[in-house]
Amino acid sequence: MNDSTARNSLARRLSGAVNALADPVTPMVVVDLDAFDANADDLVRRAGGTPIRVASKSLRVPALLTRALARDGFAGVLGYTLREGLWLVEQGISTDVVLAYPTVDRGGLRRLLADEKARASITLMVDNVAHLDLIDGCREPGTSVPVRVALDIDAGLRLGRSHVGPKRSPLHDSADVLGFARAVIARPGFELVGVMTYEGQVAGVQDAVPTQRAKSLVVRRLKSASMAQLAERRSQIASALAELVELEFWNGGGSGSVEATAADRAVTEIAAGSGLLVPTLFDHYQSFRPRPAAFYGVPVVRKPSEGIVTAAGGGFIASGPAGKDRAPLPWAPAGLHLTGLEGAGEVQSPLTGPGVAALEIGDWVWFRHAKSGELAEHTNLVHLVSGDSVVETVRSYRGFGCSW
User: Fold this and answer.
1) Phi/psi at 248 (5° precision)
2) Looking at the chain, which terminus has fewer C-beta neighbours within 10 angstroms, N or C?
3) In degrees to the nearest 10, what's the CA dihedral of 200, 202, 206, 208?
4) DSSP 3-state assignment of 271?
């Protein structure tokens, strides 16, 4: 089955499934469970026995978090805010939540400090003494109940004065990490249990884009150099930290670097989330075959001229540097393109291309979002499709009234 045939078949399958619903509304967000499960299996295969911690920001749908965590090879959640972590524990979704980012949420910290179960289930991320001071400032006077913390260590590639990778932590060299680790260990009320090194310049950058072969070659070389430098640095830091503390986990990687990260003996778990849904920014990697699993449908509402149809809304632009790659992609049926003048709009999205000829008013057009979890911010409900049917309709974080 070629690409166009597969996309047209997908359009018929998704459209038939949602048209059977009593009240289909726009945007119609769906997750193809067959593709989701296949992606989960592929992540586990690529990890080669290293546990995968589910990155919740890339899903933002509790039912999908639960589905992933129920599979062998997945363990724990990598959360993105403290209140989200508290909610996941309260709801019984996970008792092992590591926050990927530091928090300055004083209200959330007071709730954490007062809740024994939450303190045992949630690990805070720190990389600065100011984080420790802020946590201490939320304690009841005279108390020092233990709080689990992990060190966020910069995993970027350094080439002379240049830094390639996410601008996350000030902790880079062994001396920086050890100095801060000693400060954490010496401070009452803090338990150092883990480390995080997120190599986003490897895990989150496409390296096999068909229209950018020269650039992709450069990206692959930078990735190789980055992983080699990081492996050496991780080994040095791990050996030094072992003299101070026995860590429970060392988190690393992401959906685009699973094999490379799993090969590093310092790493005990890999973070992944986008690889379950495969948004468009994860289409072109050498390391895995994408199986798009998340889509949103908007109906055709008019045909302004021959060769053009207009869909109702759908202009969900992803975060990050403004550019064409942050726009949604009309995916199914095949042969549809956004116009250069209007693009994807908040209330209407004109479409051109050979696929327009087969569309009538009322037909669904299925888009893919550029980034994974952000799609869930545009809907309360997500329809889970298996085969030709919607098997369950579940709520997103937004549908639960959660705004982190």
Assistant:
1) -85, -35
2) N
3) 180
4) strand
The pLDDT confidence band at residue 158, using thresholds 50, 70 and 90, is: confident
Q: Which residues of 248-277 are buried (b: 16+ CB within 10 A; e: fewer)?
A: bbbbbbbbbbbbbbbebebbbbbbbbbbbb
pTM of this prediction?
A: 0.95
pLDDT of residue 39: 97
| Least-confidence region, from 112-121, 153-162, 300-309, 312-321 | 153-162
- Could you count the other beta carbons within 10 Å of the beta carbon of residue 155? 27
Residue 1's pLDDT is 55
3-state SS class at 258: helix
Element (H, E) at 216: helix 213-242
Q: Using DSSP, state whether 190 is helix, strand or coil.
A: strand
Tokens read off for 154: 């910069």
DSSP string, 352-404: ESGGGGG--TT-EEEEE-SSTGGGGGG-SEEEEEETTEEEEEEE-TGGGT---
